[in-house]
Each structure stands twice: as structure tokens, then as C-alpha cells.
Write a structure and sequence with these properties.
This protein has helices spanning 2-16, 102-114, 122-131, 150-162, 183-191, 212-227, 243-252, 284-292; strands spanning 71-74, 79-80, 83-86, 88-89, 99-100, 118-119, 133-136, 139-146, 167-170, 195-198, 233-235, 255-257, 264-265, 276-277. By secondary structure, it is α/β, with parallel strands linked by helices. The strands form 5 sheets. Strands 3, 6, 8, 9, 10 and 14 form a 6-stranded parallel β-sheet that branches. A two-stranded antiparallel ribbon has the order 1-7. A two-stranded antiparallel ribbon has the order 2-13.
Length: 293
């Protein structure tokens, strides 16, 4: 009976056991960490950032324009205009009325600019005498006789610095000769505003020449043919002139240059306009006085 009782107990114990795999015990959840959140900040309470202003752009420097010459009506008839006469801008072996040193010439050009003088073309002066024209308040004509090479090598660069131009009175038979202007140089001067006039064929005193009329007429023909430039005014060599030569000049030119003590130009002097030769020994005071009367 005891064996029977043990067997029954064993069977009851087996029937009470769960069927199938036994699930592992659930893991105990771990508590999540608590985040600390900063409190909200009012934007008005934040400090205002100071921003440095951008530097202003440097303005471009203003270049003052060259003063425009005051234009005044002169003529017809009487016109006050100095006509200065130069020959060679160089240093001679001894002082000569036909030379002006480069330093003195530069000083004279600077003085003209400082004193308010404006060089004008001979053609404009002639228009003022004949019909009237607007001229600068202080006009001046810069003329050069003989066609010496120093006009191109020395006078031209100096005058170009000041924006000045002049007129060359050329001896036709000396064109391109040694020491005298070459056509290419004359064209370069013309492109810079220079004019061309005739100073005869051979630079002889026409009062002593039997060929005075031909010297006056043919020189223009030869120069215009060689240069292809207009030649409309004449300069008497040495300032020598008589009634016959004046009549000849009036047939072939619009005006002619002589020598004289005044800067008053007029119809009656159209074929002997007064020029002031600039001497080697002139100082600036003498130069200034020559412009005033």
C-alpha cells in the first residue's frame, strides 16, 4: 500500500508542472535619467551686440579743370595781340639776337601761362582783324623764322608741356637741309596745331633782290607741294619790305609779317603785322614789358 501511495503522489506532482518552455523572468526596468532643462530667457534681456560701422569709401580726388580762357570779341579793325618772334632756341657761342637759351625760353613760356596769356593761330588773328572774332582775354602769337631744327628738338617739347602751338616761317630752299626742319617733323608739328608760313625761297634781303616777286610767290608753291599743307601767310626776311613787295604779298597771301614796336594790329598793317623779336639777353621784366605795349 505504501508503494501504491508513493506512485500516486508522483503522478500528481508531474501533472501540476507547466507544459512547454518556461519564459525567463522579466527584467526589472531601469529608471531613465532625468534631464535638466534651462529656463527660457526673455530676448529683451539679452545684451545688444555692438556692430562697428563699415568704413566709408574714399571718394575719388576731384581734379580741378584748367580754367577756360575768357573769350572777348576783338575786331574787326584794331586788335591788340603781341606777336613774338623767335629764331633759334639754343645756346650760341656768343650772345646773339637770333638765339634764346632753352632755360630762358622755358621761363618765358611759364611766364605766359602764369600771366594768363593764350597763344592763338595766326589765322585766328587775321579773322579777328578782318571780320572780328572771339579771342582769349590775353592772346599772343608765337612765331619762329627760318625753320631751324631747334624749333623741333627744343621749343616744341617745352611748348607742348604748356599746351602751346606756334607758326613756322620756312625758307623753302632750306627744307630738310642740314640743321633745318624735315617735312616729317613739320607734319608732326602741324598735327599738334602748328601752322606753316613762307619766309621766301633763299632768305635774302628782298630790297636788294631782282627776284623779290618770285621769292615771295614761288616759295609758297614749293612749300605747299613739298608739305601738302596750306601756306597762307608770309614773313619778310629781315623785315625788309617796300610797296611793290607788299602788293605781291597781298596777291598770294592773306597777311604778311614784319617788325614793329607795338602790339596793335589792324587792317592797315595786315601785310606788315608788327612782331617783337625776342632777344637772347632779355630778362622776364623786359619780356613782360614787351607784351604790354
Amino acid at each position: 500500500m505504501n508503494k501504491f501511495f508513493l506512485l500516486v503522489c508522483l503522478l500528481l506532482t508531474c501533472c501540476a508542472a507547466p507544459v512547454g518552455p518556461v519564459a525567463p523572468p522579466a527584467a526589472t526596468p531601469t529608471s531613465a535619467p532625468i534631464l535638466k532643462v534651462a529656463p527660457l530667457v526673455n530676448p529683451a534681456s539679452l545684451p545688444t551686440a555692438t556692430v562697428a560701422p563699415l568704413p566709408s569709401p574714399t571718394p575719388n580726388p576731384t581734379i580741378a579743370p584748367s580754367p577756360t580762357p575768357v573769350l572777348l570779341m576783338q575786331g574787326p579793325g584794331l586788335v591788340f595781340c603781341p606777336i613774338l618772334l623767335y629764331h633759334r632756341i639754343a645756346i650760341p657761342l656768343q650772345p646773339s639776337e637770333y638765339y634764346v637759351s632753352p632755360d630762358n625760353f622755358r621761363a618765358q613760356m611759364q611766364a605766359l601761362k602764369d600771366w594768363g596769356y593764350t597763344p592763338i593761330p595766326v589765322s585766328l588773328l587775321i579773322s579777328a582783324i578782318k571780320t572780328g572774332a572771339l579771342l582769349p582775354e590775353r592772346p599772343v602769337v608765337l612765331s619762329f623764322d627760318d625753320g631751324d631744327i631747334s624749333v623741333y628738338t627744343t621749343a616744341f617739347p617745352i611748348m607742348r608741356e604748356f599746351g602751346f602751338a606756334g607758326i613756322n616761317y620756312l625758307v623753302s630752299n632750306r627744307l630738310a637741309a642740314d640743321g633745318y626742319l624735315h617735312p616729317d617733323q613739320i607734319h608732326e608739328l602741324a598735327q599738334a596745331g602748328w601752322e606753316v608760313g613762307s619766309h621766301s625761297m633763299d632768305h635774302v634781303n628782298l630790297l636788294n633782290s631782282k627776284n623779290a616777286e618770285r621769292e615771295i610767290e614761288q616759295s609758297r608753291i614749293d612749300l605747299e607741294a613739298a608739305l601738302g599743307l596750306p601756306v597762307t601767310t608770309f614773313a619778310y626776311p629781315f623785315g625788309a619790305m617796300n610797296a611793290s613787295m607788299r602788293a605781291t604779298a597781298s596777291r598770294y597771301y592773306t597777311a604778311a609779317m614784319g617788325l614793329g614796336p607795338s602790339n596793335n594790329q589792324s587792317r592797315s598793317k595786315l601785310f606788315y603785322l608788327w612782331r617783337r623779336p625776342v632777344d637772347y639777353q632779355w630778362d622776364l621784366e623786359t619780356f613782360h614789358n614787351a607784351l604790354l605795349k
